[in-house]
Design a protein that fits this description.
With 301 residues, the protein is of the alpha+beta class. The chain has 3 domains: 93 residues, no CATH class; 58 residues, SH3 type barrels (Roll), CATH 2.30.30.60; 97 residues, Alpha-Beta Plaits. It contains 9 helices and 8 strands. Strands 4-3-2-1-5 form a 5-stranded antiparallel beta sheet.
Length: 301
């Protein structure tokens, strides 16, 4: 059979045998992987755990395939070492980006700068990580033209090599909350002290419960990172702007709940200010003043 195949393909017998063994190995491993994936899908209900198990199975079968491929095509370690020595120089030049992406993948797997499900920002891309592969990882984009870090609906594929070249921010590792601020501008004529009391009360009502969990997380993260806790409960800062007194609510929030909490606070603020006749929201205005002398002169003219 092998002799006939060799003659029909016009190639040496050994090469024909290696091709047949390679196809058979690839077919068997593909069938085994398919069966394993179905077993995993049927027996694991948790989506996140199922994803990680299926990915590990894929990596395992890939390694097995390359090991079998090496035993088929390279008869002995000397031949394999010679081949790798000759191929590595060419690969380093021709596949620079590919090798960099693979190095980035091993960095991600070893150092765990992020995991599937984390919200990250790398370069000018921000999103929730949904997949990590050998050459790239994928995120569901947030922000961009959409306000308050909500999803745009686009999936962005990012080369793994970016993790080695560009600063990366993780919204979840170490500390799962972010600080958010809501600036509220009231007029100079308003009772700003009363407004500040109302804003502080609204901030505590909507976000103070998060500070307890944040305190626990900071203590846990401090074992690995130098994190100084500071004040974690909601607070209100005062400053003066051109059009009025700026009162800024600062509070902790889950990154995925920023827009919802901000909407709830603004609704509470508008309801509270509507009940206070001495408090008005400010906005840029232009005022004109004239002295009595100027007004009389304008009348005589």
């Amino acid at each position: 059979m092998m002799q006939g195949l060799s003659e029909s393909l016009n190639m040496p017998l050994e090469l024909a045998e290696n091709l047949v063994y390679t196809v058979v190995a690839l077919t068997l491993l593909f069938l085994c992987r398919l069966i394993t994936s179905r077993v995993v899908s049927r027996n694991i209900e948790d989506d996140k755990r199922r994803y990680h198990v299926r990915r590990s199975v894929t990596y395992a079968y890939t390694v097995i395939f390359f090991v079998i491929l090496g035993t088929i095509w390279f008869k002995g370690m000397a031949s394999l070492g010679t081949f790798l020595g000759l191929a590595s120089a060419g690969l380093a030049v021709a596949l620079h980006d590919t090798i960099a992406n693979m190095a980035g993948f091993f960095f991600i797997e070893a150092r765990k700068p992020f995991r599937v499900g984390d919200r990250i920002e790398i370069g000018d891309i921000a999103g929730d990580v949904i997949d990590i592969r050998l050459f790239q990882f994928s995120v569901v984009e947030v922000g961009n033209w959409v306000d308050a870090d909500q999803s745009t609906g686009r999936i962005v594929h990012v080369p793994n090599s970016m993790t080695l070249r560009v600063p990366l921010s993780n919204y979840h590792i170490g500390f799962e909350y972010i600080w958010n601020e809501i600036p509220v501008l009231v007029t100079f004529e308003s009772d700003w002290k009363k407004a500040k009391e109302l804003l502080l009360s609204i901030g505590k009502e909507n976000a103070e419960y998060l500070s307890q969990g944040a305190q626990t997380q900071i203590r846990r993260a401090a074992r690995k990172y130098l994190i100084v806790a500071g004040k974690l409960t909601p607070t209100v800062y005062t400053s003066v702007k051109d059009s009025g007194v700026m009162l800024t609510i600062r509070y902790l929030v889950d990154p995925r709940q920023r827009r919802g909490t901000e909407q709830k606070m603004w609704e509470d603020i508008l309801d509270a200010f509507a009940k206070e006749p001495n408090i008005e929201l400010a906005y840029p205005t232009t005022r004109f003043y004239s002295t009595p002398g100027n007004a009389q002169r304008a009348t005589n003219d």
